[in-house]
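Good morning C.,

I know you're traveling, so I'll keep this short. The sequence:
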Amino acid sequence: MDGNDLMQEKDGIEERLVLAWDRILEIPHEQIIKQPYRDYFQEMARYLLTGKEQMHTSYTDYTLEELQQMNQNMYGDLLPEAYETSYGNPAWAVKQMGEGYGPMLSFLYAELKGVPNYAKNARKLELVSFLELFVQIYNCFEHEEEITPRQLRQIIYEFYYDNCDILIPYRIREQYDNRLDRWIRLVEESDLMDLRYLYAYGEYISEYELRTAAFLNQMPEAEIEALAFTYTDGYREGFEIAGIDLTKKKYVGLQYAIGQERIVRSAIKQFRALGLEPVIYCPPLSRINQKQNQRAGITGTPVNRQYAYDHRFDEGLYLDKAFMERKLEVLANSYAACKNLTELFAGPAVMETFGETPFEPISKKDCITLSDKQEKLSVEYTSLAGRIVNQYINRKEYSFTIIAYPSPEIGEDFEEIFRETVKVNTLDKKLYRQIQETMIEELNQAKEVWVLGAKGNQTNIRVQLHPLEHPDKETNFENCLADVNIPVGEVFTSPRLTGTNGLLNVSEVFLNGLKFVNLKIWFENGMIQRYTCDNFSTEAENIRFIKENLLANRETLPIGEFAIGTNTTAYVMANRFNIVYKLPILIVEKMGPHFAVGDTCYSYSEDNRLFNPDGKEIVAKDNECSIQRTENPAEAYFNCHTDITIPYDEIGRIVSVHSDGTQRDIIKDGRFVLKGTEPLNLPFQK
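The tokens, ready to paste straight into the viewer:
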């Protein structure tokens, strides 16, 4: 049996598919339903039938031009220039079909967008389930006595409640099961010089995926192998530094951007040399498996970031206490069924891209939102689901690596920026180790670190550090040297919350795919007390935006990390090309001091003993929240961690403050001034 057919068998499924397709085939020609709903259902029916046409074809059956047209037909109405009159736009759906039906039918549109991919990838259970949902709702609109919005919402609720055990288990398994090998075979067996392979994913393919693949195809194999080695060796080093035996593991989860397949193919060979088999999967298609507007797996250029933002809380249609408990039950059962796989899972290896124009969303009143009660349920679900996952993924035997390369979306200097990024990703670790040891030696003498902004940045915050009982053998700060987080260049700690007070301010920052303007967060005893930004015209909108997208609908979060980034080479590159606010957090966090809100860097693995290269043990892994993990895990973990970086040019001082009042500057006026760290200023001079 093909690995992709696992979990897709069920009695009568072929008969159900025939009946569903036959019924949908009739809809574009029927005049029974009155307007404006008739146009909606006929458009959706025609779209769904494109999935039927692709069920038994391959990308090799079409020319590149035909594939491009098919991709345009699939996603064209979501592109920014067409989105105003798309049913995927809740505002348009409401304008056409009213406040009662519009949001729900826009939600249905978004869910049915995945049907061609279900069809193409032989995921028949999910396919027939969504086809039958569409037919069921269509039939309700056929009756003279019109279905009420409340009845429509009940149909949607019952569908997701009843189909949890279809939609969730496959999503869990595909993240760990190497037998679901469709994408592995695509990477290994395709002619990557023939760019038609890009369309096999079923994702939106922009000019940037085509240009990335074409650019990598021009590179000599030795360069490709070197790019892959930076990625795979960083992964190996992560296990070595943490003292984890990699030989006990069998699977590595590969996440990458469409177009990077040449690097991935080389990486697969290198991971196999380490004894690891790849697991590759695409982003989830259904809202039930999505988290706000975030995506994971094989990703491409978003067809429209506003579309994803508009649908980020679509689960508001069906989320209640009973549904949450049902979903948790299915999640637990799904992980239990995969236990033999998760025990052998080593962790993810991620290749990101960067360069997109920072997205500033438009807030729309017609989008589905979460009620106050649903927000609390969403937070509760995240906490309980995180505990289930960590029951089966042993963080003491788990690691990861992340690296990033530019997308052609970054502009006309793409190729030069790519080459400069390679240099940033491969800086001299020995040099940075020595410089960062000097910095850590000073910071280990401090009771707190005082950070002050400059040039309009109003940051003024004092970060409390843990007292060291044995300073000759212990350290508060980890010396980060490009293993799990590439590139090199930061020292970081989990600060004490008590006594950590003040204001964090950043003029512009790109977090979780969204641009924040003049972000301000006030902390009291390490917990977020209040916050604001300048994204929207009203304070209420700004506060709501931060709560939803930075606090994940929580009332507060702690400071989970304080770090000083040392990668001035990356910062100078970013300013040279004017791409500071287009870089990913992975690089940005190395370009100045940063504060993470949420969990510490050591969440779920606090008991692992970790040592810096100088032999000192890292002891600052807990804070007042995480220390509750045994007695009260619900208060210990938040299952989020977002880094917020202040660029060097907005830093007035970073001061190491000793117990006796002694103060030593680490950074002053945006430059490193601590003796022994001066080489970090050389890139500024060049």
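Safe travels,
E.
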